Amino acid sequence: MPETTISKLSETIFRNVKVVDSYLKANNLPPPSFDVDGPAVMEVGPDGAHVEDAKNKAIAAAMELVDLLVGPFPSLRPLYNGTSLQAISKWKVAQKVPIHGQVSFDDLGKQVGVHPIDLRRVLRYAMCHHRLFCEPREGFVAHTLASRKLAEDPMLADGLWLLSEHTHQAQCRTVEALEKWQDQEPTHTAVSIMAGKEVTLYDLLQSNPEHASKFVNAMTSFAKYNSRSPNLPKFLHSNAGPFKNLGKVTVVDVGGSRGMDAIMIAKISPDPNFIVQDLPPMIQGAEAALPPDLRDRIKFEAYNFFTPQTTVADVYIIKQCFHNWPDHYCVRIIKNQIPAMRPGTKIMVIDSLVPPPGNMSLMAERSARAYDMMMLTQTNGREREAEDWKNIFRQADERFKIVGMTSLGYPLDVPPIGLIEVVWEC
């Protein structure tokens, strides 16, 4: 009898977990744990790329194995519920639980102003579905690793706020929005319906100073935290040749937030100077936070990419901005760069570059589809394939020539990322 699929998947899991386990033991590194004092990420060394690969293969095989073993019916009766995450975020539950102690549901209920029985129901869901908190003895709440990180890092807390308040709540209104509007405008989304007015997510957040600040923190946390070891090369550098050999040029990072990518590129490419552009709230105080040795090479500048570009540069980097917007808005952003461009000027887009279905792992595809649906709910943006990028630049101007599309890898936490290199030929 031929070997079954579930047997092959089991062997794949075992084989790759052994690679991970052996490396951790050989290097005296702590294994993954839910414990409050466990490691936040599996910090393999610079020699551990094969371990990261083995980890991802084991995860993908485990996902497929679970789906096969449980059968089709759970997919038709999904049990996911975003209420617990919204409640934990809104009530700041993580900050009210002692890091290495316990608190009763009764006392915690009094602190958040909720009946303890209902609080218990909410948190027990989060315990088993999200690994947030644990119940070391009946009736008492303590931290797990995940909830401790949430308690200690305001940026992570703001990231959860953004998702729970503006994504999870809006998801159930997405079908309604699609039926009401069919023009893919960023003001015609499920978020718009939730807000009760035709407004973009960004305008909605910027209209409230507190929310604008939380949004900045949330975006920073998404860029800062992922499941990949910080000792391994960033995905931006996986195929770093185009960044290492920029030469003595001026690079503008359009929508570059706090300058994290400019810092990374500056460290591996000593010649370029950088100008990081973003909206004023995003860049406020960013220059003072730069590493001292890079302050003469990295400057910040207020700019809205829906207005014409006035800063002349040799290279414009636009990272993970386009997936937030529908196609015709992406065309506008690109057209707005033209006034400052000269023959040979480059645009380097770092954004989703999703292979066609069936050409990536289950883990990568699930990530891509999940983000695609999130963009649909929030902004009418989307994750794009190679042909989509060709169409966008063709619509912007026939003088744009795509000279390269390079995969930068399949991160665990975000869709497949690519580098699209474009030259302005006029």
Question: Could you describe the 3D structure shown?
Answer:
This protein has 426 residues and is an alpha/beta fold. It folds into 3 domains: 5-76, no CATH class; 153-225, no CATH class; 229-424, Rossmann fold (3-Layer(aba) Sandwich), CATH 3.40.50. It is 47% helix and 12% strand. It is built from 19 helices and 9 strands. The strands form 2 sheets. A 7-stranded mixed sheet has the order 5-4-3-6-7-9-8, with helices on both faces. A two-stranded antiparallel ribbon has the order 1-2. β4, α16 (280-283) and β5 form a beta-alpha-beta unit. α4 (83-90) packs across α7, α4 (83-90) crosses α9 (154-171) and α6 (105-112) packs across α7 (116-130). The longest helix has 22 residues, at 5-26. It is globular and about 70 Å long. The termini are far apart. It holds the Pfam family Methyltransf_2. It comes from Rhypophila decipiens. One of its GO terms (molecular function) is O-methyltransferase activity.
